[in-house]
Amino acid sequence: MSEKLLKNIAQEEILKLADLVEIQKGQIVSKTLVQNQSVSVTLFAFDKGEEISTHESNGDAMVTVLEGTGKFTVDGTEFILNEGETLVMPAKKPHAVYGQESFKMSLVVIF
């Protein structure tokens, strides 16, 4: 019996990742698609002004903005990402995420 590695997502169906999470007023919404010792894949929806404060990860984190605009700070350097843009935040470097406006992103972390 094979175990499904992906969860919370339809299989064998065309999807738009941005449609899988909804922006909610005053919140950050997340939906985990994969979580194991090697990789984590999570979708996020940030309301404008919401943030994840500075933290570090043990893995390389690749974010792709799916909708809107987000501000990412990596080791003190700010990056503004718009829909379709991707940024890699290296492991062990402090980083933060801020909703410059309401936005959605996918996060893939490789451990």
Explain what you see.
0% of the residues lie in helices and 51% in strands. It is built from no helices and nine strands. It has a five-stranded antiparallel beta sheet, with no helix packed on it. Strands 3-8-5-6 form a four-stranded antiparallel beta sheet, with no helix packed on it.
State the share of residues found in helices, binned by percent.
Answer: under 10%
- The rounded Rg comes to 14 Å
- Please tally the helical runs, counting DSSP H or I stretches of 4 or more residues: 0
Largest sheet: 5 strands, antiparallel
Portion in beta strands: over 45%
Protein name: Cupin domain-containing protein
InterPro entries: Cupin_2 (IPR013096), RmlC-like_jellyroll (IPR014710), RmlC_Cupin_sf (IPR011051)
Describe the secondary-structure layout:
Elements: E1 28-35, E2 39-46, E3 51-55, E4 60-67, E5 69-74, E6 77-82, E7 86-89, E8 95-98, E9 103-110
Antiparallel strand pairs: 1-2, 2-9, 3-8, 4-7, 4-9, 5-6, 5-8
